[in-house]
Amino acid sequence: MVFDIDMIKKVYAALPGKVEATRQLLGRPLTLAEKILYAHLYAPTTTPFERGKSYVEFAPDRVAMQDATAQMALLQFMTAGRNKVAVPSTVHCDHLIQAKVGATQDLAAAVDTNKEVYDFLSSISDKYGIGFWKPGAGIIHQVVLENYAFPGGMMIGTDSHTPNAGGLGMVAIGVGGADAVDVMAGLPWELKMPKLIGVKLTGKMSGWTSAKDVILKVAGILTVKGGTGAIVEYFGEGADSLSATGKGTICNMGAEIGATCSLFAYDSKMADYLKVTSRAEVAALADGVKEHLRPDAEVYAEPAKYYDQVIEINLDELEPHVNGPFTPDLAWPISKFAQAIKENNWPEKLEVALIGSCTNSSYEDISRSASLAKQAIDKQLDMKSEFTITPGSELVRYTIERDGLLSTFDQVGGVVLANACGPCIGQWARHIDDPNRKNSIITSFNRNFAKRNDGLASTHAFVASPEIVTALAIAGDLTFNPLTDTLKNKNGEDVKLDEPTGFELPVKGFAVDDAGYQAPAEDGSKVQVIVSPTSDRLQLLEAFPAWEGTDLKGLKLLIKAKGKCTTDHISMAGPWLKYRGHLDNISNNMLIGAVNAFNDKTDTVKNSLTGEYGAVPATMRAYKAAGLGAVVVGDENYGEGSSREHAAMEPRHLGVRAILVKSFARIHETNLKKQGMLGLTFANKEDYDKIQEDDSIDIVGLTTFAPGKPLSVVLHHKDGSTDEFAVNHTYNEQQIEWFKAGGALNVIRAEAAK
Ligand code: SF4
Predict the structure, then answer these.
(1) Does ipTM surpass 0.95 in this model?
(2) Partners of 724 in the beta sheet?
(3) The CATH number of domain 321-495, selected from 3.30.420.60, 2.60.40.10, 3.30.499.10, 3.30.70.260
(4) CA pair distance 292, 715, nearest whole angstrom
């Protein structure tokens, strides 16, 4: 048993009392999110929290980390002065495996290439009591769903798709590594009380429609920003009709609308999934408190009274969707997709179709896709585009191999990739004749920003359910609508694909030979953490300096970024993943994807000391060498995307003092605060236009830095004129302490030493 049953028993034993106390406190019926959140307060409260306003301290039950983010999180944890993690925690080796040939060779190559990182993660996990999932064991969110997620629990994970565990009724939130360090050190974890969006699902899906289409539709309604600062809670008879893994898919992609997390109520589908994944004991315990694992009945009756926003979707009428390209909220019902392709002149030819990943590799997904591959064989159809399958875990892979599904894919030319992120995160050595040629791919993954999958700006990436991806792979053409159109088979006959069929759960149960789990040492005190001093991939951390106690004067403008600036633009993934444990080396990718508002170029900014244009990291290193700090200016939703704290640590390491933007993505804003950076927003968004390329910048008001009190920015322009305006911040008392100490870790270490 890899999960901690005693911890779950403790949570459930306390749940009824905590829920009743919350009902009394709020004086009304409760949503499910409220029950779970208030049951996980770090300390009891006598006053209700205000949604969207109050900062709240929580005590999550678990922490999960993937190998790219775990390196920096655990390097930080090492400096926090603790002997063992305070809550059950796990590390998952999934992000560093490059897809090139196929599962076996790619895994072997990754184990070789990443040996020093895996040795570090394995040894540090062993030392500090952390469960370690080896390369090949699977993708973090699938492994968490199969082993650790439980209804009514709360977890954080150092990956933006951590909310996947909402499929089993868990409040599961993606955070930066610094937050994971807090929780592993036994400290409270802070979050602004989320707003609540209710999504009522009526009816029942059938035919080609799948759970993926629910979230693709929701993304179209709410857009990439619509869920920001909110928990999305699904309810209604339609919600209860979805499989637990289908619920997981929906919660997973809640990250694409910026939601804090998404959540489904405990039901028989969740119980079935817990039982089939060797957790009957958890299901029995959950049954014992089941009324506390669902919203109160009054919430169902009058949802608008209890949620800040309510959306209704009728599953009877829901069409399969295809979203993209370049953004996951550009939603097309399949009946309108062909027209959209033609009108926008997107490449019709489908070159590669990819199914699986943490988002969609459940037994249900794979068996439904395999039913289409089987039809292709039976109906004498060729698979026209390249087709890859990424199982989410070894448990899934072993089971689908046993049940002959992988062999069906093999017969149509499908390539099974390692149980890892691979093409989903740019770890894909794609074979393409001309990398500049406009081309289309489609995935059943979650994210489709430019360059996300293969690093190529020319690739138009679309997202759909595994069933639709498979059908389009057979057609090789994005204008094909499998619900209405026919295909010519090898005999020249017109044939139509039947609706996909599959199994929610394996009839013979799941099986696995070696799941790839390594339990930590009982006593880790003698275990040595392996870090080579000559490594270019791992570097022990030094503390950041404390604030100097004065206003910041004479800062340089490093870059005024224009338009979308995601964490991929700030700290690119792909080839840079390899330096995730080496702060100085990875800092050479800082902001190289951001577009300079003054020349529309990436990675080309003016060095105001020399007047010459150069790369962003090199320019910042020149300022640092001259003893100068700098400011980065950005647009709306700066830092959206992933939870990587490197996007905050790199500017901090190279001497950037403040990030000043029109608005922030939540996780990134928190990460900046943790690293002792200033994250500021324009009080008046038009002031963004006042920033000029050669400005010298002062930040004023820091000696009286206080919650809710704006600071001032003074711009000294080249012509001698100045502009002054107010900037807002969301720092509370504790976060201001972090800023003053030079970072949250400096505060933790000082407390541990007391
Ligand atoms: Fe891996 Fe992609 Fe899932 Fe992230 S979204 S955990 S990169 S498979």
Answers:
(1) yes
(2) 714
(3) 3.30.499.10
(4) 54
CA distances from 79 to 40, 109, 191, 355 (A): 27, 32, 23, 40
Q: Do the Cβ atoms of 118 and 105 come closer than 8 Å?
A: no
> Mind listing the pLDDT tens digit for each residue in 125-184?
999 999 999 999 999 999 999 999 999 999 999 999 999 999 999 999 999 888 999 999
Report whether 638 contacts 665 (CB < 8 A): yes
Q: How many residues does the chain have?
A: 754
**Ligand 1 interacting residues, C-beta cut-off 6 A:** 94, 139-141, 159, 161, 357-358, 421, 424-425, 445-446
According to the model, what pLDDT value does residue 178 have?
85
Q: What are phi and psi of 150, to 5 degrees?
A: -145, 145
Is the fold of 5-314 the same as that of 552-753? no
Q: Rounded to whole angstroms, how far apart are CA atoms 569 and 584?
A: 18
**pLDDT, position 532:** 86
Q: Does domain 552-753 have CATH number 3.20.10.10?
A: no
Distance CA 652, CA 672 (A): 8
Q: For ligand 1, atom 2, which residue shows the shortest CA distance? A: 424
- Please give the pLDDT value at position 82: 86
E runs forming strands in 162-291: 171-174, 189-192, 195-202, 230-235, 261-264
Give the pLDDT of residue 575: 82
Three-class DSSP category at 610: coil
Averaged pLDDT of the chain: 96
The CATH T-level fold of domain 5-314 is Aconitase; domain 3 (3.30.499)
Residue 523 burial (CB count, 10 A): 11
The whole-angstrom separation of Cα 481 and Cα 490 is 19
**Annotated domain spans of the chain:** 5-314, 321-495, 552-753
Which residue from 94, 158, 160, 454 has its CB within 8 A of the most atoms of ligand 1, so it is best to mutate? 94
